[in-house]
Amino acid sequence: MAPKPHRPRLPDCTGALVAGGQGSRLGGAAKGLLRLGGEPLVARALRVFDGLFAESVLVANDAAPYAALPVRATPDLLPGRGAPGGLHAALSAARTRWVFTAACDMPFLDAAQIAWLAARREGAPAVAVVWRGRLQPLHAFWSTACLPEIDRLLRQGQPSMWQLATAVGARLVPEESWREVDPEGRAFENVNTPEDAARLGLEVP
Ligand SMILES: Nc1nc2c(ncn2[C@@H]2O[C@H](COP(=O)(O)OP(=O)(O)OP(=O)(O)O)[C@@H](O)[C@H]2O)c(=O)[nH]1
Questions:
Q1: What topology does CATH give the domain 10-199?
Q2: pLDDT tens digits for range 73-87
Q3: Which of 6, 24, 173, 205 is 20 to 30 A off residue 65, Cα-Cα?
Q4: What family is this protein classified in (predicted)?
């Protein structure tokens, strides 16, 4: 039988799973391998991405823990910069005009919510939600037009995600708008500690 054609909803966009962290608060665990309902978080995220994006990439210097996954892995080009370095690598690796970045430890990524955010990016270089006063840059769309400025800032120092978003002129979606699709901000949940894993019902492999 011929393989099913891949018809993503957002063909101008790459889904990037940022997975190069130390996981130090979880004893050095590869957080993307935590399981929800028996499925590793990265596998779940890639399933969501598959229906949405032209391609998925996994951004990590050490992709060995994720070797079994059918995804293109790419390293940080500027290592040691934390999540901003992951964003930089994702934009550098993308073959599309847009990148959606997600952390590898987000258990509740949702295709309809991501598509809702995508619909708010036109005319902006990037779009991210501000939830409870905090920018959510690892659940955000960034155009590859942002790359030169992000590259410049990362080569100069250690900018935060907030500084990068400000520098490129990201569009900020206020909390009250996001509540239309996600009243409790489930999309932004992520796992940092054993307590988070227990609270979110995750299994540690
Ligand atoms: N590619 C890349 N991803 C990173 C880097 N640092 C953090 N991340 C990812 O960014 C997301 C948020 O990271 P954090 O949870 O703040 O940090 P962490 O290193 O994973 O965990 P801690 O060591 O406990 O702070 C996670 O998906 C990490 O895997 C990095 O230097 N490069």
A1: Spore Coat Polysaccharide Biosynthesis Protein SpsA; Chain A (3.90.550)
A2: 999 999 999 999 999
A3: 6
A4: Belongs to the MobA family.
